[in-house]
Amino acid sequence: MPISRSHHRPFRSLHRLTAMMTIGIPCAAFAQSGDFAACMQKLQPQATRAGISAQSFARFTQGVSPDMSILEKLDYQPEFRQPIWDYMAGLVDEQRISEGRSNLSRYGNILQRVSAQYGVDPATVVAVWGVESNYGQTQGKYPLVQALGTLSCYGRRQAYFQKEFFATLRILQSGDIQPQRLVGSWAGAFGHTQFMPSTFERLAVDFDGDGRRDLMDNATDALASTANFLAKGGWQTGQPWGFEVRLPAGMSTAGEGRRNKKSVSSWTAKGVVTVDGQPLDSRVSPSQKAGLLTPAGATGPAFLVFRNFDVIYGYNAAESYALAIAHLSDRLRGGGAFATPWPTDDPGLSRAERMTLQKALLARGYDIGEPDGLIGSKTRDAIKTEQSKLGLTPDGRAGQKILRALQ
Ligand code: CA
Fold this sequence. Notes:
The protein is mainly α. Among the domains are: 3-76 and 139-193, Orthogonal Bundle (Helicase, Ruva Protein, domain 3), CATH 1.10.8; 242-305, no CATH class; 351-406, no CATH class. Helices cover 48% and strands 5% of the residues. A 5-stranded antiparallel beta sheet has the order 4-6-7-3-5. A two-stranded antiparallel ribbon has the order 1-2. A hairpin with an 8-residue loop joins β6 and β7. The chain binds calcium ion. The site of calcium ion has 8 residues, from loops. Residues 206, 208, 210, 212-214, 218, 221 line the site of calcium ion.
């Protein structure tokens, strides 16, 4: 999943915790349930001030123990950075496109009503859903009270997590979601939309009118809540997020980016055209402001991005993430792959291809666990060994070259 930080979901990329928290023994000592109970007791008066009755606080925190494994995740630093083409290949693959198209049709009537009310088109809403939770299929497994309770008492940013913890308790107190159903990511994002609890409170909507805002089990509420999030973020109805462009040979992209917006006419003056070689104003008004995004440098695909790209970016504060949603939305509308290939001779793998690669490694006797399409350290170690045998660079990366060599 994406790597970034924002008010919405701030713990995607992380600094190191204090040394104490990363060492096993002091950590275990720290985790004594007595400490946690004392911490909860200390938080209770603050919870009252935050609108949680003493009865609710007792009911929802009773019997909860801390999960110290979450602190390791808070401290996790990926040792392997995915290139953008691997990231995009996993997030926008044939499976996600075809499931997205099925959902566009399955929820067609609801999406039309959502679009009429919030001004956000169906493909964009469904693309967010597909990238956030794989259309509700990957919502996370951590009980939220336990996860946010732990983060409220230990580790960095306790004040931030306490606010989310109290929001969680208010959601339970309101009855929107049943306690046993409130599970999500270790950092507290939950449901089809992967909202943080405070985001839920601000932006979740009860679109089917059953009296509950349910983002865990109700796709109708989730689709409308996503549209509401984008609408409140400043979505411009009917405007594109952006589109791929072709740059003139030798054009400098230094200093350009999403934030550095210029009028479409000034991009035209620099020689930028659509990938079909058409003038930019064949797609969009020349007075529109756009930034130039080149996620893999000047030789890879280039995009002009408008205000709506920033709104998608607001969902998770990572440009690669926003580009995945934006591109998926285009694919759901029937658009094709990028015209310019990524600058690599070893493109990335879809989730299905990652599974195939894992099965090939299992068949060769590597103990990498169940094939799940997620490339973890065991899979990467096995890939390194096979790359060495084949005379390839042993970087542990799951790409087309190693897949073809092992098939
Ligand atoms: Ca509802």
